[in-house]
Amino acid sequence: MGLKKGKPTPATDVPGERQQARDLDGLLLALQAEDPLTRRWAARDLEAYPEAAAALLTQLRSERENSVRQVILTALTGIGNETAIRGLIDCLYLEDVMLRNAAIEVLKELPDQVAPFMGQLLKDSDPDVRIFAVDVLESLRHPRVEEWLIEVISEDPHVNVCATAVDLLGEVGSDQAKVALASLKQRFAEEPYIQFAADLALKRIEADEA
Amino acid sequence: MKRILVIDDAATVRLYHREILEKAGFVVDEAINGLEALEKLEQAPFDLYLVDVNMPKLDGYGFLRALRQLDVPQAPAIMISTESSASDRHTALVAGANLYILKPIKPEQLLAHVQGLLGEWQD
């Protein structure tokens, strides 16, 4: 007797979406599937599972398909818990430029969650990470933003960290920043950009006061 | 007169570059990210692009990759970054930058790079 063909598998509405069960275990399995479409759908659905943040971060680092990376980043933004934030901050130290920049953009969208790490980031030994931290301050609505920026331009030894901070102080700075801006000009007297940006910030602060 | 597009999300940086370049006789336009830059160049291409790396919506690498695939008159691009690692430089050049220079840049350095690259491009 010949083998009977089984019932055909019902067509799925979205290719790759229904290959695994849609519970956490099934989605975690699908996240490692060979087919990028399956991984993408799994990543999208894992946004509903905060406990999947670590697995998403692991996959993010090895993922080569840009569209899947984007969905993983969106899922991590949606989860936004401590694991997700710490994992994204770790990405700032990677040599993978694309992933590092993508992580920066995601972190900028999560200012409240990043705020508790700000003090540590502003003191990081890597100036690029400190620049990123200043960039995040731009989107941070936090009462300490000006204080942090003044601290940076008063203490940070790296010209580009100070340059990034002074750009932002021009927008959010008040009378309190004037002394630090004048000191910064003296500290980097040979840097035309610092002179230009500090003068501009001082003018804006004075115009706001008038 | 040569037209230069300055692409940077920091208003102070755009103004700094604008002042230097305009004093030297260039016509300068600005874009706040890669996406706005692509819109502007489709209206009228530029003779040179001065491109920041980290910008929202479309970063400098994304802009350069898109620019190099567009069917528009091509022009040299200088990527200006705070990141000094070899991988950053490599990524910029692969994306389509003709030159990768580090911030902060002094006016005379910027003009030397711009004029040098425009001269090479014409040759």
Automatic annotation (TrEMBL), chain A:
Instruction: Please list the GO terms describing molecular function.
Output: lyase activity
The record, for InterPro entries, names: ARM-like, ARM-type_fold, PBS_lyase_HEAT
Spell out the SUPFAM superfamilies in the cross-references. ARM repeat
Q: Which UniProt keywords apply?
A: Lyase
Protein origin, superkingdom: Bacteria
| Region Disordered, annotated ranges | 1-20
SMART domains given for it? EZ_HEAT
Q: Which Pfam families match?
A: HEAT_2
UniProt feature coiled coil, ranges = none
List the protein's name. PBS lyase
List the source organism.
Answer: Lamprobacter modestohalophilus
UniProtKB/TrEMBL annotation, chain B:
Q: Which UniProt keywords apply?
A: Phosphoprotein
Residue ranges constituting the Response regulatory domain according to the UniProt record:
3-118
As stated in the Swiss-Prot or TrEMBL entry, residues carrying the post-translational modification 4-aspartylphosphate are D52
Q: Which Gene3D superfamilies match?
A: 3.40.50.2300
**GO-annotated biological processes:** phosphorelay signal transduction system
Q: Which PROSITE patterns match?
A: RESPONSE_REGULATORY (PS50110)
Which Pfam families does the UniProt record give? Response_reg
Q: Which InterPro entries match?
A: Bact_response_regulator, CheY-like_superfamily, Sig_transdc_resp-reg_receiver
**This protein's name:** Two-component system response regulator
Look up and give the organism this protein is from.
Lamprobacter modestohalophilus
